[in-house]
Design goal:
alpha+beta, 7 strands
C-alpha cells in the first residue's frame, strides 16, 4: 500500500470519527428550555432512538429562603412544559427527615410516587448526598408510609 493510499484512508477514518463523535455529543440531552435556569439538571428516563436523545425531565431546585433547608423546585418535560413546581423538603431514609440536602444527583433517576395530598403522581428528586426531595405537603405522610412499608423507598433509592 502506497503512502498516499494510507493518507487517504487515515483522512477518511478521521472524518468518520469526527462525525460519530459529533453525533454522540449531540445525542445526550435535549436542549435546555429557555424558562429553566442554566443550572437545571436533565434526569433521564430512557432513550428516544427517533430523535437520538435521552428522554426525561429537567429539574431545577434552589434553596428558598436561604438557610431554611427548603427548596423551591421546578420539574419540566424535555420541551420545558412545567409538570410540577413547589416547595420541596429533604428525606434522608425511610424513617427520618434530613436536615439539609446536597445537589441534584447528576445521573439520578427522577422517581414518581402517589402523593398522599394530591392522590396523583408527584416527582421525588434524588440528591448527591443520598437523600431525596419530596413535595412539602407530602413529606410527613411519605416518611410514615416508607417507615411502615420500605419497599417503595428501596425502589427510589437503589443501593450504591
Amino acid at each position: 500500500m502506497s503512502g498516499s493510499t494510507k493518507a487517504i484512508i487515515l483522512a477518511c477514518l478521521a472524518v468518520v470519527s469526527f462525525a460519530l463523535l459529533h453525533r454522540a455529543t449531540r445525542s445526550f440531552d435535549p436542549p435546555l428550555p429557555g424558562d429553566m435556569p442554566a443550572d437545571a439538571r436533565f434526569l433521564s428516563t430512557g432513550y428516544d432512538l427517533d430523535k437520538n436523545e435521552r428522554k426525561g425531565n429537567w429539574v431545577a431546585c434552589h434553596e428558598a429562603p436561604p438557610g431554611s433547608g427548603q427548596r423551591s423546585c421546578r420539574v419540566a418535560d424535555s420541551q420545558g412544559m412545567v409538570i410540577f413546581e413547589g416547595i420541596y423538603l429533604p428525606v434522608r431514609d425511610a424513617q427520618s427527615v434530613a436536615a439539609a440536602a446536597g445537589q441534584i444527583a447528576p445521573n439520578g433517576k427522577l422517581g414518581w410516587v402517589t402523593g398522599p395530598s394530591e392522590g396523583l403522581p408527584v416527582p421525588v428528586i434524588p440528591m448527591t448526598d443520598g437523600s431525596v426531595l419530596v413535595p412539602q405537603g407530602d413529606r410527613d405522610a411519605l416518611v410514615d408510609r416508607w417507615a411502615r412499608d420500605p419497599e417503595e423507598w428501596r425502589n427510589l433509592t437503589p443501593a450504591k
